[in-house]
Design goal:
The complex is a heterodimer of chains A (193) and B (174).
Chain A: H1 13-26, H2 32-42, H3 48-60, H4 65-108, H5 112-136, H6 147-163, H7 168-190
Chain B: H1 3-17, H2 28-38, H3 44-56, H4 64-102, H5 107-131, H6 138-153, H7 158-170
Helix pairs in contact in B: 1-4, 3-4
Chain lengths: 193, 174
């Protein structure tokens, strides 16, 4: 849609903190969908391909993906200070809300309207994540792997995690090196040096 | 609350931090084993409530970790648990990101990015799949599909979608 509009950068660490606070507070049932929308489409701090690259690294490292992602985005613009400004934004306000909710939970969890609303939000949150996956697929069209290999690897990974329910570490340690080796091979063939 | 217990809590989460590939939820089974079964700091219901609230509240799901600490030792417990789970993984993430960014044109780094992209995408799709209701709950699945379509094809604000889901659910349709 607006993929060719020029990229922008955050004005300051405060801007980073506030943007990450705002996006974290919109992230019901996971922050990923909102992060993609805000960082790539609204603020235009990252392209979809860059978002996917940072997320790939965030994914193989220990720690929550979206927290690692916020660190990396902050670090890219303002170094260590930016990294912690973004991470603090991601965590501070939602933590306050979660602690308050913890105090109220015992009283309202059994209420049918509250329980129903939570179920409805959960169903939508699943859809937000699926829709985000579809949107992020666009940069793969130009993957050095070539579309058939990228598709096969993606399907294998999806089947292993969603259907066979294999542990993530096992999947990443087997498919990861295979995918990187294939990519290495293709990049070599394109650009022999 | 004894300092010993806080130390044990912090130390346990420091250790789990570097094992939490795929997010803190990946080590939740081990937290459960230690906090509920071995050390008997929390009941099963308390443990489940921390995860349920972190899922329902906005923000990263990691927040169930400070909620666990909070139930053990109040705000101090929350701070200790959060620091424990974050410090090691955060340090490693920063170092790795800088290492990769400084070598963006290395063939190995390019191969990593190109190779991991389809896997990352598949993991996002798998997360959505696992969060969706099991077959049979058709209203819930229809809601999930509608939300996916709207995110993909429109620029509708995501809070409208979440709010819509809450209204559907509160009305008793899901």
């Amino acid at each position: 849609m607006h993929d060719d509009a020029p990229l922008a950068r955050p004005a300051s660490c405060t801007a980073l903190f506030l943007s990450f606070s705002a996006l974290a507070l919109q992230g019901f049932g996971g922050v990923l969908a909102v992060a993609q929308r805000v960082l790539c489409e609204q603020r235009r701090w990252l392209t979809k391909a860059e978002f996917l690259e940072l997320l790939a690294l965030a994914q193989v490292l220990p720690g929550p993906n979206v927290c690692n992602l916020s660190l990396m985005v902050g670090d890219r613009f303002f170094g260590t200070r930016g990294a912690f400004a973004a991470l603090a934004g991601m965590i501070a306000a939602p933590l306050a809300i979660a602690l308050a909710a913890m105090a109220l939970y015992a009283r309202f969890a059994e209420h049918p309207v509250v329980a129903g609303a939570l179920r409805g939000m959960g169903a939508v949150a699943a859809g937000l994540v699926l829709g985000t996956a579809i949107k992020l697929a666009t940069p793969l069209r130009t993957s050095p792997l070539g579309r058939p290999r990228a598709l096969a690897l993606g399907l294998a990974c999806f089947a292993a995690v969603a259907w066979a329910r294999l542990p993530l570490a096992l999947v990443l340690l087997t498919l990861g090196p295979l995918a990187c080796a294939l990519a290495w091979h293709r990049l070599r063939a394109e650009d022999p040096r | 609350m004894t300092p010993d217990l806080l130390l044990a809590l912090g130390g346990h989460f420091l250790m789990l931090s570097l094992l939490a590939v795929g997010g803190a939820i990946a080590v939740a089974p081990d937290m459960h084993r230690w906090m509920v079964i071995d050390a008997a700091l929390l009941s099963d219901a308390q443990f489940a409530a921390a995860i349920a609230i972190a899922q329902a509240a906005p923000g990263p799901n990691l927040l169930f970790v400070p909620l666990l600490g909070y139930q053990v030792a109040g705000l101090t417990g929350a701070a200790v648990a959060l620091a424990g789970i974050m410090i090691p993984s955060t340090t490693l993430a920063l170092i790795a990101a800088r290492w990769g960014a400084a070598r963006a044109d290395w063939p190995a780094v390019r191969a990593f990015k190109a190779g991991m992209a389809p896997l990352t995408l598949a993991l996002i799709a798998a997360t959505g799949w696992l969060l969706a209701a099991p077959a049979g709950q058709w209203v819930s699945l229809a809601l999930t599909l509608a939300a996916a379509l709207l995110v993909w094809r429109t620029r509708l604000h995501l809070l409208w979608l979440i709010g819509g889901g809450a209204v559907f659910g509160a009305a008793g349709w899901v």
